[in-house]
Amino acid sequence: MKRYLGQKKLMRIYLDNSDTHEGKPLWQLLLRKVKEEGLAGATVFKGAAGIGVRTELHTFEIWSMAQTLPIVIEIIEAEEKIRDFLDKYDSMIGEGLVTMCDVEVLRYKDASQSRE
Q: What is the pLDDT of residues 10-67, one digit of tens each?
């Protein structure tokens, strides 16, 4: 698990839960692509509220039939792998924001692997 430790990059992809690609939820497709590409992993967060690209408020409203909520996909990996992933799948993202920043991975534990 040492390959996951040290200086890495954190990419965040900001979407809405209503974003789709070829009729399927975009966040699910991107998560599958992370797995297919062999990236270290990803986490998808559903936000309680957010302001999107057109400064519209997206929030949960109990009386609304369709809820548009913010989704954030976080991927921590080496910069080259993140950039390659984004280059390959950027066309799937019709609208959204993508950021990248430095992160230091201090621990990465997998109980199914032997201790290193």
A: 999 999 888 999 999 999 999 999 999 999 889 999 887 777 666 665 565 555 555 7
Specify the fold of 2-105.
Alpha-Beta Plaits (3.30.70)
Contacts of 84 (CB under 8 A, 6+ apart): 37
Is-contact 112 46, C-beta < 8 A? no
DSSP annotation string for 65-94: SS---EEEEEEEE-HHHHHHHHHHHGGG-S
Rounded CA separation 60/49 (Å) = 7
- Buried/exposed 70-100: b ≥16 CB within 10 Å, e otherwise: bbbbebbbbeebbeebeeebeeebeebeeee
Domain boundary assignment for the chain: 2-105
pTM of the entire predicted model: 0.83
Distance CA 100, CA 83 (A): 10
